[in-house]
Structures are given as C-alpha cells and as structure tokens.
Write a sequence for this structure.
C-alpha cells in the first residue's frame, strides 16, 4: 500500500504498536487522547499521522481528517485488500444472545463442512487456530487483520459478534455484511451510550450498512426490531420469533433440562445462491435451556439455511451442540444441579428466571455477583429483577458478592454500586447475605445443597471464575469424602483384630 509515494508496512491507532514505516491514526477516546502519543509514534517509526486536530510537524506527514475512526477503517480495509468482499460475512448484534447465536452458527457450518471463522466474546477462531479475545468486537485494525487471515486461510464464511460499542466507534466501518441479525434490545451499557436512543441508533448502524439485496434477520417479537429497518428499503427481510406473524417461528415447544421444538418456515425464502426453499416444519432437539435460546436457534437455523445447509444437517449439529460457556451452562449435574450464567442486565436475569420456572427442583440457591464499574442504574435494575423473582421461585438462600478475590480493577465494585444493590434488596421482606469473597460464598452454599436442588451462579465479569471455584470445591469435598471412607474402612479392619 502506497500513500504519498511511501510504502506503508502497517496501520495502527496504538502508539505502542508502531514500527518503521507505519501509519499512526490518533484517536480521541473516553479516557485517552491519541494525539498525546504522536511524539512516541513518530519516534517508533510512524511516517504518516492522521488526526482530527490542527497539528504541524516537520519530521513526518500529518493529515487532518474529519473522522479519525472512519479513516482508520478505510486505511485498514485498503491495506488488507478489502477482505470482507472476499468472504460471506454474518454480523450479529443485540443486547443478549450474540455469543450463543454466533457460536451456534459457527458450529452448524463447521459440522456441515463449510470453512468458517468467528470473531467474538469467547474467542477468535480461524481454521484450526484460536486467538484470545479481549473485546466482543475487537478494535478496527484487529478486525481487518483477522478478516484478512481468514481470506489467507481460505475461509468461506466469517461470523462476527457486533457490539454497540463496536458500532458506535466505527470498528466495523467498511465491512461488507451479507447477513445482519438482530437478537433483541434492552437497556444496557447506558454508562457508555448515556441514552437508550443512542444505544438503538448504534445498533441500527449494522443494518444501515447493508447493501441492496443483502439480508436482515429481525426478531419480530422484540419492541425495537422494526426500528432496525427504518430508512433501508432495498434489503431483504426475514423475521423470526414465537409470534405467528413471523416468517420463521417454533411450534410444539417442550422445555426442561433439554429443549425440543419444531422449526417452522411459514413463508418461502431464497438462499444466497438463489435456491428457493418452500414452507416446511422440522423437529429440533437442543441442549440449550430456555425460550430465549429458541430465539437464538431460530435465527441460527435460518442463517444456515440461507447458506444452503440442509435442515437435516442443521438439526443434527444443534443436537450435538453443548451450551456456550456461562450461558445457562449446566456445569454440574449429579444429586443436585449447578447452572452458570453471565447475567449482566435485567433482560438476561429475566431470561434465566423464566427458564428456571420451567424446571423441576426442590430448593433454589443463588450466588449473585454485583456488576462492577458499570454504574448505579444497571445494578439497581438488576437488583429489582432479583427481588421480583425471589418469591416466585421460592429461593432458599441468596448470597450477594462482589468477588473481591477474583476481579481485576476494571470490574471492581465500588462502594456506591454495592450500596445501590443493597438499597433495593433491603426494601423487601426476604433475607439475603453479603459475602465479599466469591470462593467463600460458593463454599457456604455448597454445604446446604441437597438432592434435586439447583444452584445458580449469576453475574457478569465478577462471576467469571465461579465455575472453576465450584469445581475446585467439589473436588476438595470428594477427596475429603474418599479419605473419610478409607479411614472408616481402616477403623473397621483394626476393630476386627
């Protein structure tokens, strides 16, 4: 790539990544101003700097732009040879369900023998290689880097989780999406977006980017679904949901610790290759718990049909698909059951509790993590949902924790956030206990679990280590039981001599 006669070897907005003959794009973020790192970038080898400010330097070319983030995306897109135009790209956005939906699509396509890559919350997978993921939607230069890696590895389909942060900050600007999926919209991330209007506007950018003839898969049952389509009359629309008005719906639903339903295509659709699919029904069996996962499955199945995967192969792949990490994940099922879920907003709590309501159990125990560094409002609203469902589900014991033994500074709970949570819960008749340590909280509840009970480990980043802590404690407990049993055997032997 040549700019002003200079051969460019790399593009970045991180001054620490600059090398000789790089372009540095100075971005102004929430906490840092990239313009303050221009000196460092030039010293490291930057030959061209893009900025939104009036800056003059003798030692390198400085170009002023109106929108640094869009310019960064344009530069990366050109540098890597417009990789998304060489792939089929699927983008999934929404408050909840992005991770499950993207990983389910990835699993089905992989099982069908289609070369597929994924970029999302849990990981980045390209062929046999896996890379760690720091953000749901990586920064712009990483997005284009990984899309280019997919092209180099002969990947056919790229599946992307597209967050509201990623859309608002133009991280996927210039990516050519073939299918855009809307899961749902509920109030979240208002510490970043400030208003629900801005949050919706950010989500809508994914659908605004669709070219004529591309496909939008919209959750018809979501209040904001149709808003995603406003102003774009040239795209193809497929709706899904449990409403009979949807293009795709489900019938004969049966949910417990397994889920079954009939996938119902109520109006014919045309695949991306031009094949017509007529109306049909087909039975689906899934390990994913809850009605919210039926929505995720409907969108994933529809997407794979559009990519010409036969419904028989799709159904077989779904049946073999294990729950996604921390998404209604059954991490232990013996005398009692332990379920781990990344609850982070009121809607995700509601989805979990609605699912629990359909299950058979004796007593329900909950260890719930306060959401750290996300503001007072989200914690008040999460606590409100917890309070409302406490009596409905007949919760035997609730322990609230801020996991001081597990969280990093980015997710540490402030005194104000903790107090906001407690103010809601104290204004009620039920009892709860606070335990600062996540390990101690789980250890305490573990002593009380009896056959056919359920333990829920609920919460966002503060609960990420809950599964490993629980399994460690179970192993310790089983080891102690074995030692005690062996001790009794030896005691009996000695008693008989």
């Amino acid at each position: 790539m040549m700019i002003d006669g200079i051969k460019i070897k790399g593009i970045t907005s991180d001054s620490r990544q600059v090398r000789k003959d790089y372009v540095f794009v100075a971005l102004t973020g929430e906490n840092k101003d990239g313009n303050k790192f221009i000196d460092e970038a030039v010293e490291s080898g930057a030959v061209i700097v893009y900025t939104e400010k009036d800056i003059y330097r003798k030692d390198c070319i400085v170009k002023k732009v109106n929108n640094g983030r869009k310019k960064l995306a344009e530069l990366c897109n050109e540098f890597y040879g417009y990789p998304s135009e060489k792939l089929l790209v699927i983008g999934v956005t929404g408050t909840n369900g992005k991770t499950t939906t993207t990983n389910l699509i990835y699993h089905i396509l992989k099982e069908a023998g289609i070369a597929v890559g994924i970029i999302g919350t849990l990981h980045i997978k390209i062929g046999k290689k896996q890379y760690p993921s720091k953000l749901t939607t990586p920064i712009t230069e990483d997005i284009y880097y990984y899309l280019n890696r997919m092209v180099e590895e002969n990947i056919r389909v790229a599946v992307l989780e597209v967050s509201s942060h990623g859309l608002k900050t133009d991280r996927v600007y210039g990516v050519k999406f073939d299918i855009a999926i809307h899961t749902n919209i509920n109030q979240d991330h208002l510490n970043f977006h400030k208003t629900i209007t801005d949050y919706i506007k950010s989500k809508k950018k994914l659908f605004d980017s669709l070219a004529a003839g591309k496909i939008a898969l919209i959750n018809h049952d979501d209040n904001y679904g149709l808003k995603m389509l406003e102003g774009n009359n040239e795209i193809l629309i497929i709706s899904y949901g449990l409403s009979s008005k949807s293009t795709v719906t489900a019938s004969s639903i049966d949910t417990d610790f397994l889920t079954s339903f009939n996938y119902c295509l109520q109006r014919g659709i045309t695949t991306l290759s031009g094949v017509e699919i007529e109306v049909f029904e087909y039975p689906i069996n899934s390990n994913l718990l809850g009605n919210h996962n039926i929505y995720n499955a409907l969108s994933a199945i529809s997407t794979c049909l559009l990519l010409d995967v036969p419904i028989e192969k799709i159904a077989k792949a779904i049946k073999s698909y294990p729950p996604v990490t921390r998404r209604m994940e059954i991490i232990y099922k013996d005398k009692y059951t332990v379920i781990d879920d990344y609850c982070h907003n009121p809607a995700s709590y509601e989805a979990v509790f609605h699912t629990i309501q359909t299950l058979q159990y004796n007593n329900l125990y909950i260890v719930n993590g306060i959401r750290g560094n996300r503001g007072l409002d989200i914690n008040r609203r999460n606590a409100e949902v917890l309070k409302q469902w406490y009596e409905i589900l007949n919760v035997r014991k609730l322990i609230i924790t801020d996991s001081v033994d597990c969280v990093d500074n980015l997710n540490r709970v402030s005194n104000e956030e903790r107090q906001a949570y407690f103010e809601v819960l104290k204004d009620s008749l039920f009892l709860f206990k606070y335990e600062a340590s996540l390990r101690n909280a789980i250890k305490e509840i573990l002593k009380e679990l009896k056959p056919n009970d359920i333990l829920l480990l609920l919460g966002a980043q503060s609960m990420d280590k809950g599964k490993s802590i629980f399994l460690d404690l179970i192993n310790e407990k089983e080891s102690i039981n074995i030692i005690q049993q062996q001790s009794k055997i030896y005691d009996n032997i000695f008693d008989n001599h």
Summary: The chain has a mean pLDDT of 92. The radius of gyration is 25 Å.
